[in-house]
Amino acid sequence: MRFRQRSAAPDPGMLRASQGGTMPPDSHGAYQIREACRTIAAFASPVDTATLITISDTRHPSGVLTVTVTGDLDFGTASTFYRQICGLLDGRYGGGVELDFSRLNFCDLAGWRAVHAVAETAATMGYQARITAAASCLDVVLRLCHIPVFLGYRPPQKAL
């Protein structure tokens, strides 16, 4: 990484930008990025954010629906998770929805909100949702949020 040595006189373009003004566009109509910001812009450039989530389901003769989730349950996959699970709830069977998160790699708060939304929707359709297994990433979220029990799941106590 190269840094430009700061001159005694401030660059007028940098001064305008730091004062809330804008720099003039280049010949293509794009606004220029100061050299110091180019490295940051390259680092923050859009990447493929399509995270993978796999949802498999098994419907038991008793009417219980078992759903196994594999991958990442986060901001990027929460809406897919919600739509897929709610699509499986048709209200004909009633019973319960068992959520198996033991194969989950990552979960953030948006993922937990989606799980909560699934549970609420399931309840309105006559299902009772509960978590039957969870990966350690879910335990971390529950501990950080000080939630001792969530949908019947109690994370294991962490040794002191």
UniProtKB/TrEMBL annotation:
<dbReference type="InterPro" id="IPR036513">
    <property type="entry name" value="STAS_dom_sf"/>
</dbReference>
<dbReference type="InterPro" id="IPR002645">
    <property type="entry name" value="STAS_dom"/>
</dbReference>
<feature type="domain" description="STAS">
    <location>
        <begin position="54"/>
        <end position="140"/>
    </location>
</feature>
<feature type="region of interest" description="Disordered">
    <location>
        <begin position="1"/>
        <end position="28"/>
    </location>
</feature>
<dbReference type="InterPro" id="IPR058548">
    <property type="entry name" value="MlaB-like_STAS"/>
</dbReference>
<protein>
    <recommendedName>
        <fullName>STAS domain-containing protein</fullName>
    </recommendedName>
</protein>
<dbReference type="Pfam" id="PF13466">
    <property type="entry name" value="STAS_2"/>
</dbReference>
